[in-house]
Amino acid sequence: MEWGMKNRLSQLIQKDGKALFLPIDHGYFQGPTHGLEKPGETIKPIWQYADALMLTRGVLRNCIDPTIQKPVILRVSGAVSVVGEDLANESIVTSVKEVIRLNAAAVSMSVFVGTKGENKSLTNLGKLVDECEDYGIPVMAVTSVGRELEKREARYLALVARISAEIGARVVKTYYCKDNFEKVVDGCPVPVVIAGGPKTETQREVFDFVYDGMQKGAIGVNLGRNIWQTEYPLASMRAIRAIVHESFTPKEAEDLFEQVKAGKA
Fold first, then answer.
1. Distance between CA atoms of 141 and 108, rounded to whole angstroms?
2. Which of 56, 138, 144, 230 is the most exposed place for a label (fewest CB within 10 A)?
3. Is residue 197 part of a domain?
4. 75 pairs with which residues across the strands?
5. How confident is the model at residue 1 (pLDDT cuts 50, 70, 90)?
6. Which residue out of 18, 173, 183, 261 is catalytically annotated?
């Protein structure tokens, strides 16, 4: 692995081998998502606790202070919406030239398996990897197995994670599953980070699945809605960071959450 690729990955994955990415890219297909109507304001209390921000070029240019000292994972896939026919029908909408111009540390794109868009998204991933490798830019595959929740089980998640790594993704983002998540991680030869998915009912649910996923081999998380859509995003962010980087248990994270919420930590 050449110096540039190593350097960029080291900005994302910290010295302890762990990572906490903060995605605020949801507007690319959801529009002004609740809690993310003004992305720059949303992240003000919490960005310093993230290891990297994941977002689109439009939000980066218009909402983020260019002096911010955080690496950027630039989402480069899109051209779909929640009211369209097929969310899997994405295209690459941002050039690698633009990625370099915006000084991004990495790029991300969605990969869909088990959908009509499977071939297109996997082909897009291959082309993106080819071009990014020329410039030492890591690609993170944001994996999906369709809308059916029953497909979020180990055999399907392992399938799309492994395929993404085989095509050349340097990092894979995948959903957590309670049963056999270690098979997803063990079958993927590149680092795995856990996606948050829809907002949970309680904070403890988040702490539980983050802790369990990391015990089973994930290097960290890429959580958005389960942080900035909560009533106490700073408390949530700090508690999750403690699990990722300080090996807090769910109970310890819950205690820290309550302390931060009360202004005592």
1. 6
2. 230
3. yes
4. 108
5. confident
6. 173
The answer to whether 260 touches 239, Cβ cutoff 8 Å, is: yes
Residue 55: phi, psi to the nearest 5? -165, 170
Query: Which residues form the domain of 155?
Result: 3-229
**Count of domains in the chain?**
1
Gap between the Cα atoms of 42 and 85, Å rounded: 30
**DSSP-based three-state secondary structure for 54:** strand
Return the minimum-mean-pLDDT range out of 65-79, 139-153, 176-190: 139-153
Looking at residue 146, what is its pLDDT?
66
Residue type, 144: S
The phi, psi pair for 91, rounded to 5°, reads -130, 165
SS3 state of residue 26? coil
Tokens of 77: 């896939």
> Quick check: is 164 in a domain?
yes
Q: Look at 198 and 214; give whichever has higher pLDDT.
A: 214
CATH of the domain at 32: 3.20.20.70
Per-residue CA distances from 211 to 110, 115, 246, 258 (Å): 25, 30, 11, 18
Number of helices (H), then strands (E), in the chain: 12, 10
* Any domain includes 242: no
Residue 121 belongs to some domain of the structure: yes
Q: Decide if 216 is catalytic.
A: no
Residue 9, both tokens: 């990955």
| CA–CA gap between residue 146 and residue 55 (Å, rounded) | 22
